[in-house]
């Protein structure tokens, strides 16, 4: 009976082919750092927008002043042009609006000039005129918002009656019931539009006030000013002189 033939054995000096080994290379630390930086950037993006950290605070404050100046000068020119066109038939409301806009422009230019001087002179207290102006406008905005809330909470008839009474007092002409009804409907629509404008105005003024206040804090931190010392005599007697290096007696 024939025996099965075995395959020839490989020579003793030969090597087996290497087994495929898959090795996971470690990730470079730079990739993890890059990914964490991008994640932190997007996480801090809302804070950067709200806290004016994306650009110098002084530029934010100045751009807000420029925006207010452009809008105010346009409103002043429009009112002045209307006043010139209706010079033969002047109305008190147009004159009052023109005077108010003129006073506002003077205050705006003064506070903006003080803000620029604070940047170049590095004096934080020169920012106060701008802060006072913005704080006053913010208070006025909240007062108007309170009136709007009261209007839509059930006091619309009373407020409309006051407005119609003021209107009749200026014109010296009583209104009919139909005119009163039309004015009531118009005042309701005006109040709704005014509510949205007041909310946007309050948000704008709050952001501007935060930017100006942050600019003042940066000046106080980077350029501390001299504070005068009181010239009055101290209330407590002076402490006796001591030498910490001198050994105390036992």
UniProtKB/TrEMBL annotation:
Region of interest: Disordered: 227-250
Lineage of producing organism: Eukaryota, Metazoa, Ecdysozoa, Nematoda, Chromadorea
UniProt superkingdom: Eukaryota
Transmembrane region(s): 49-77, 97-119, 131-152, 190-211
Alphabetical keyword list: Membrane, Transmembrane, Transmembrane helix
Protein name listed in UniProt: Uncharacterized protein
Comp. bias intervals (Pro residues): 235-244
């Amino acid at each position: 009976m024939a025996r099965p033939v075995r395959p020839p054995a490989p020579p003793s000096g030969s090597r087996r082919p290497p087994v495929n080994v898959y090795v996971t290379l470690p990730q470079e630390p730079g990739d993890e750092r890059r990914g964490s930086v991008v994640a932190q950037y997007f996480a801090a993006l809302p804070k950067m927008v709200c806290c004016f950290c994306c650009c110098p605070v002084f530029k934010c404050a100045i751009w807000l002043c420029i925006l207010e100046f452009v809008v105010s000068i346009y409103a002043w020119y429009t009112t002045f042009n209307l006043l010139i066109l209706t010079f033969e038939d002047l109305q008190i409301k147009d004159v009052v609006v023109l005077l108010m806009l003129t006073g506002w422009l003077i205050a705006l230019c003064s506070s903006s000039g003080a803000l620029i001087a604070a940047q170049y002179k590095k004096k934080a207290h020169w920012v106060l005129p701008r802060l006072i102006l913005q704080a006053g406008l913010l208070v006025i905005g909240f007062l108007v918002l309170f009136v709007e809330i009261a209007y839509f909470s059930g006091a619309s008839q009373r407020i409309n009656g006051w407005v119609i009474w003021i209107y009749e007092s200026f014109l010296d002409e009583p209104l009919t019931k139909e005119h009163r009804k039309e004015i009531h409907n118009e005042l309701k629509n005006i109040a709704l539009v005014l509510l949205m404008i007041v909310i946007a105005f309050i948000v704008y003024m709050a952001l501007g006030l935060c930017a100006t206040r942050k600019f003042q804090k940066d000046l106080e931190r980077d350029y501390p000013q001299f504070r005068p010392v009181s010239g009055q005599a101290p209330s407590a007697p002076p402490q006796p002189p001591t030498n910490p290096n001198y050994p105390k007696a036992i």
